[in-house]
Amino acid sequence: MRPLAERFFAVFTLLAFLTASVCPALPAAAQEEGGSRYNEVLQRALEEFNLGNWQEARALFRKAHQMNPNARTLRGMGMAAFEMRSYLAALQDLEASLRDQRKPLTSEQREHVVKLIERTRAFLGRYHVEVEPPNATLQVDGSAAEIGEEGVLVLELGNHEIVAMASGYQEQKRSILSCSSYRSSVTLRENNRLPVSQEHFQRSLPAVYQLLMHSRLLHAVQEIGSSRMPS
Fold this sequence. Notes:
Layout: H1 4-22, H2 25-50, H3 54-67, H4 71-83, H5 87-99, H6 107-121, E1 124-132, E2 137-140, E3 143-144, E4 152-156, E5 158-165, E6 172-178, E7 183-189, H7 196-228
Parallel strand pairs: 1-7
Antiparallel strand pairs: 1-4, 2-3, 2-5, 5-6
Helix pairs in contact: 2-3, 3-4, 4-5, 5-6
């Protein structure tokens, strides 16, 4: 019969061998399972797209993109958005698919995306926005504006309201009608700066209010104290 120490070493060696053999397979199995789910979602997205169910297709392409972000899922999202007539989202996704190097597009796919981008731009208005002061915040229809390169703002067709805001200035609003393939400029100069006294009053209002309440409270305490004093 072998000594206890020798048997323990043999068992330990066997466990170490099994652990080394199984553990590397675990990440590979998980990766394979994740890839299988991704392929399943992608296949469903393609089926919905071929059936003309654009919203469902876009949702599934987006889900696949969240699981495995790459240029081809972005292309699918952009193609579905184009069919939904969500041209701004289509432009953003399609342009991103050309830049993304994860599972990059084939030359044929890139050619198709470039042509689709040109078609998409025909249904968008492009505006060069100039704002003074430069640190002003812009909003379009109540949401933060996305200004592209060289200060270009891309808008869907229809009516929009642009608002410029800056500390110490009154808001400036501009209503515009975005037309198909229209290019123009929008200048927002916030000339109506608040008067110094008004601006100072707005900034100091909380402190003034606290001082006023303190003085009123002090006056009330003095009145209560004087009423309790013996005559």
